[in-house]
Model the fold of this input.
Amino acid sequence: EPEVTQTPSHQVTQMGQEVILRCVPISNHLYFYWYRQILGQKVEFLVSFYNNEISEKSEIFDDQFSVERPDGSNFTLKIRSTKLEDSAMYFCASSARPAEAFFGQGTRLTVV
Amino acid sequence: KNQVEQSPQSLIILEGKNCTLQCNYTVSPFSNLRWYKQDTGRGPVSLTIMTFSENTKSNGRYTATLDADTKQSSLHITASQLSDSASYICVVSQSGKSTFGDGTTLTVKP
Done:
């Protein structure tokens, strides 16, 4: 069964560094998403991406964050100048139709 | 502010028993309502997806219902198994943006 793949599974970075979280969505999907889940809290929407541009973003998704689809298969989330409070699970999701969202297994980001 | 409220916050049941989880939402209009199962440290896995015109959707032992008039949904789990222990999340979507509930933590005990 096709699945969304995320790498790395765990990333440790020093405060102030930039990180790039990578995702390979399901191949025939057109809609892509990033979500965040701080430990013990609920999943929060960050951004949705369609047709090579951001279609929706939350108030969390400020100038520190950016997304890119550098080629036909990858979808990345870049976090500039990481802060301690950026520590969380980051989930990528994709879908063939709007707002269905099949999730990857997540990248655990730890900022130290 | 659009909200999705789930109840109970946590639930403990014995293996083999049935249970029902509730979801109330204020998102309107909405594209769809989804129930996910999330095991600890893993990504959410879709159980059911319903549009506003659907009243019920089943997936094996999971049955979701939707009342768009009262803005309520429920997830019924039949003949629970130990592997059903997880967090169950209700998600309501409006165009490209999704609002997640806090989830119900279900523990199934032998």
